[in-house]
Amino acid sequence: MISIPEGLPAELVPLSWLLGVWEGTGVLDYKVGDEHVEREFGQRVSFTHDGLPALAYNSYTWLLDEEQTPLSTELGYWRLSRTLLPEDAGPGLLPGSDVRPFSTAQSVESLRTSTGGFDIEVQILHPDGISELYLGQVKGPRIDLTTDAVLRTSGAKDYAAATRLYGLVESHLLWAWDIAALGQDLRTHASARLARTDLAGGSDDGHPMVQQASDEQQTSAVDHGEDEE
């Protein structure tokens, strides 16, 4: 059974090991026809929450050149995947009931799948006219995502599908991102290794909410026979 750190919406506990500000470096490695693009980049990622049952995601990347040239940004939301109930807020600004659904450890535990994880939905918006909806699963300190839908503006470049893998390994956030784009099949695109630099909101790395949540996820991974990879 999961437990809920004080101040954290119950539905975010399975994702709570992501909370904070992460920074590190990565490698872009993508081949299109005869062109093979290989570059190193820096990245800063934050996962925060405002009391609602979703994590807010923000990513900024830059090339590791002399000018530290800006490369890209991403904005999005990460949440457990479930059918919204009449008691939930929305759509628009419509308020929900006074008692939020899935506000207890027992009710969130009922969302656990037969494989021991939790289904999740991730929405990611890019400034180049591409929006992604990912479906996947968080299982202990590991997340697997696959695009369910991709929306492109009329002027955006070809981008058809993607997968993303996130994992907490030796207190570092590792990720890998494969894409199907520019007429290519799904293939390796980029990966990075990030270290937590701060708990989003200004507290330090040892904040008990993050430490407790991280410990619980590590324990959950062991309980379900998972490796932290």
Protein described:
The chain has 229 residues and is mainly beta. The protein has two helices and ten strands; from the N terminus they run ββββαββββββα. The chain has helices spanning 105-109, 208-223; strands spanning 20-32, 35-48, 55-63, 70-80, 118-125, 130-138, 142-152, 159-169, 172-181, 187-198. A ten-stranded antiparallel barrel has the order 1-2-3-4-5-6-7-8-9-10. β8 and β9 (172-181) form a beta hairpin. The longest helix is centred in the C-terminal third of the chain and has 16 residues, at 208-223. It starts with 19 loop residues before the first strand and ends in a 6-residue tail after the last helix.
Brief synopsis:
The protein is mainly beta and 229 residues long.
